[in-house]
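Hey,
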Amino acid sequence: MTIESKIMSVRPLSKRNGLTLTWLGGLSLLLGLGLFLTWPALFAVGLMFFSLGAISLILGLAKVYEPETTLALDDKGLTYFHRRGKVSIGWDNIQRVDIPRVTNGLDTIELSYLGIKLKHLNPILDNISLRLATGLLTEQRPLLVTAASQDEDLATLETYLGAEFGPLVIEGDRYRGVLAMFGHRCVMLDTRLGYHLYIPHDSLDREAKDFIKLLRQRIAQASRLAD
């Protein structure tokens, strides 16, 4: 994390070794292809290098094309940067931050996300881009399944899935299309898991618990300054 005045920029752990993994993947891919063409007797070895190279290349490129900075913290709030866009959240609009948890029988399982519960959803729907909202809807499908598993009433889930495509009215503001879908998703996840927004742990530059402690300090500081 780098600090410039009171602005803090987070370079995610997932970004590390992206170029190295890309180069190694490319070399392994070429080596496997070379073995295919020149030494047919080593087909199995060539196939192994080719497969590992393809996987490493894809993972490396995914790391390379991720934003250099995933989170920026300043006096007003935090901004989450995604390859599809960004969204800003004011400190005064954050009610709670923590690690979402679900129950599995008698066990409690922590999800690999940082959860943010909002006081008002409208400011998010008003500043998030359609491209980012669409991307998050796709990426949050595992969360949707997890949330659904916490409710034994499948009819409730079916009702939600049907309502997700309809308009959304929050505090007198009406939303349609992708923004309405994203808003419905946020409300549903908040109802089932306790948080509106979810940031993957691999977008952070440290352990999630340490980052949550930092965010809570920022929220408390902003609250004191506002009083």
